[in-house]
Design a protein that fits this description.
elongated; two-stranded antiparallel sheet
Length: 169
């Protein structure tokens, strides 16, 4: 379907694109396709406000795409100020279609714009990174943190709560 859309955009056949657009929303809500479109449009505008940056539209960000695809997460655990990790968010969904307990790990590697990239998920069809926890810690490997004593403090290594946040519901 995405190949077909790409070809239509290249051909710039306005009538064909209008027909596709109408048919798409007709299948979503045969009784009122306009209502289905307007409901989705509100979600896109919300995603733009939540996840948009100067460089990217909200729906073009990983968080925006996941939000539009699966809806709002059941829980969000944030690790924005941990000294040894890139800023991250872990989104958990109790239910997505026929799937239960699905998790998405986003991180902000550039730490400048608020553009969190999807690093790992256990949802089929999404990026899977078995070493996601190590990737988050690459920040401390690249630049040694002066606050890092290397000692385990109450089960939390130098302020790193990634495992706790991942396993918290």
């Amino acid at each position: 379907q995405s190949d077909w859309i790409g070809n239509q955009l290249k051909a710039a056949d306005l009538m064909m694109m209008k027909k596709f657009f109408y048919d798409f929303w007709q299948r979503k809500n045969p009784a009122d396709p306009e209502a289905a479109w307007n409901e989705y449009k509100v979600k896109v505008e919300s995603v733009q406000k939540k996840f948009g940056t100067r460089a990217l539209k909200g729906y073009n960000t990983d968080m925006g795409r996941v939000y539009l695809s699966y809806g709002p997460p059941t829980t969000i655990n944030k690790g924005e100020y941990e000294p040894n990790t890139y800023p991250y968010e872990i989104w958990r969904y109790d239910k997505i279609n026929n799937y239960s307990n699905k998790t998405f790990v986003f991180y902000n590697k550039d730490m400048v714009a608020r553009n969190f990239i999807l690093l790992h998920s256990d949802m089929p069809g999404e990026p899977y990174e078995a070493a996601w926890n190590l990737v988050l810690r690459e920040r401390s490997i690249k630049s040694k943190n002066i606050d890092d004593t290397g000692k385990d403090i109450n089960g939390v290594y130098s302020g790193d709560r990634t495992n706790d946040n991942f396993n918290t519901k």
